[in-house]
Design goal:
two-stranded antiparallel ribbon; alpha+beta; 47% helix; 15% strand; two-stranded antiparallel sheet
Length: 239
């Protein structure tokens, strides 16, 4: 079974048809080709010297060559061990947990919980790709900064999921609902909808020490009450 690409095979064929001025140039070209390959190895490689004559046609017995040209010759083979290693690595993914005690949560239970809630997890990470998150507007070249941004985005997703869970749990435990996007009562709103639900609220600053929150309605106050007194206090001076 071959794992090397058709492009690598074509490049190696062109390389074998290339005439080099010396053996060192041919060897350098061969090494450069090998460094470019990830799943391909060159086997039975050798450098052949072929005479070049000034006249066309078959040279005579006493005719001496004008110069020598050097050609590569060999074959391609698949690096199966490297391929299997890369395949195995790409077939794995990381499941992380902050519960380090295996007596409380075993490795098998981690996988079981992930498979049970896999759809929820993938739904959350799909939020990263949503245009509303505007992650595509940030361009970072440094790998360290990309990793830092991913850490911040994951933290934001954690807060996003925690708020969503807390609101849903409170709605179900108190048997209450809030209107969804279509105005229908729901006990399972998304955090994104809750954020949009609070759009339109304005802050009126009367003086340096006095400010009033405007345009608050009763459904918004109900959501704040579900989240707790700390959230209610943030919107206490509302009108």
């Amino acid at each position: 079974m071959r794992f090397f690409s058709w492009g690598a095979e074509c490049r190696f064929e062109r390389l074998q048809k290339t005439a080099f001025a010396c053996e060192a140039d041919a060897e350098a070209a061969l090494q450069a080709f090998r460094k470019q390959q990830k799943l391909t190895v060159v086997h039975d490689a050798e450098i052949l010297a072929r005479p070049r004559y000034s006249r066309k046609g078959r040279p005579g017995q006493e005719q001496t060559p004008e110069a020598y040209e050097y050609y590569l010759q060999g074959g391609l083979a698949s690096a199966t061990a490297i391929y299997q290693e890369k395949l195995q690595r790409k077939s794995c993914f990381i499941i992380a947990t902050n519960e380090l005690d295996e007596q409380v949560l075993s490795e098998e239970q981690v996988i079981e919980h992930y498979q049970k809630d896999q759809q929820k997890v993938e739904h959350g990470f799909r939020f990263f790709k949503n245009p509303w998150f505007m992650a595509s507007t940030v361009f970072l070249k440094s790998p360290r900064r990309i990793m830092a941004l991913m850490m911040i985005m994951t933290l934001c997703l954690l807060v996003y999921a925690a708020i969503e869970w807390r609101i849903r749990q409170a709605l179900q435990s108190q048997n209450q609902t809030i209107p969804d996007q279509k105005g229908q009562p729901t006990q399972r709103p998304t955090a994104r909808w809750v954020f949009q639900f609070f759009s339109g609220i304005r802050l009126l600053r009367i003086s340096q020490t006095q400010q009033v929150i405007l345009s608050m309605n009763e459904p918004q106050r109900a959501v704040l009450a579900l989240l707790g007194n700390r959230y209610v206090d943030l919107y206490a001076n509302s009108a």
